[in-house]
Request: fold
Amino acid sequence: MKRLAFTVMLLSAVAFSSTAPAKAQQTATSATSSKVESSLFTVKVISPEIREITYANGPFNFIEPDTLVQLNDIVQRLAQESDVKVVVFDSGTAGFFYNHFDMGQFPAFVGQVGKSNKPLWVELISNVERAPFITIASIRGRTQGGGDELTLALDLRYASREKAIFNQPEVGIGLFPGGGGPDHLAKLTGRDRAIEAFLSADDYDAATAERYGWVTRAVPDAELDSVVMKMATRLATFDKQALIATKQHINSTTLPTESERLVSYNNFVQSLSWSGLQQRMGVFGKLMQDVGVEKVETQMGHYVGVGNENLQKSKK
Reply:
């Protein structure tokens, strides 16, 4: 327990999000508006059957504790709207889709609990997967760590061929990737490719992600919006009962169970006490100070390698 507490404090001290601005308090809008806004999300009414959820947490679109609270609330609220059949997830931050968790706010994240007394992250992923609508990711930019694990829980993932990059850096910094990513990706890509993706902690472009089965389809960036909206509009004309019953059946045969994801999450919490993580936190903190957060975030795979090389050199 002492080692875990020390690691959490160390994580808080590392400047993973030193340039991220403070966010405004959640605001409400009129029920007749075509948009509903919170401090991190905008929900746009595209049609009676289609909603678009835009995440904007610039400059890097980190996931923070409020992200989980607000998105979980939005998903549950939309689940109560009987007309909604399709929900599109996109980003309002250039260069990033959903990024990894803001390590500077890590203690608050670890302490978050949902209504079911399970970790809020586990509850959110369950609510996304079980939602009575079809979820579509429009990925233009980087999706890394927990952001990618959230993206893997969506039903369909369309990626910009030129701009989408995928990375799971956890193993490279000495952590267990416990947000459900290994559970999902192994079922999508097969054992060996999931092992490669998670153990390499490297960047994967959209074309490779498509070939692996990581995403539904990679499309030219200029066509991404139209491809996503064409699919959303088509599905919105179909019978909702048929859509959701078929989704639920496919989910029951292909997705990891909540119990399996809970085991992964607990493994992640335990990994906070691993000595390898403690050794790397100082190394990566210095690396970010030396080259800047933006460089690391936009070249994650490269700098995970550099950080580990620096650690090896320091031991000689």
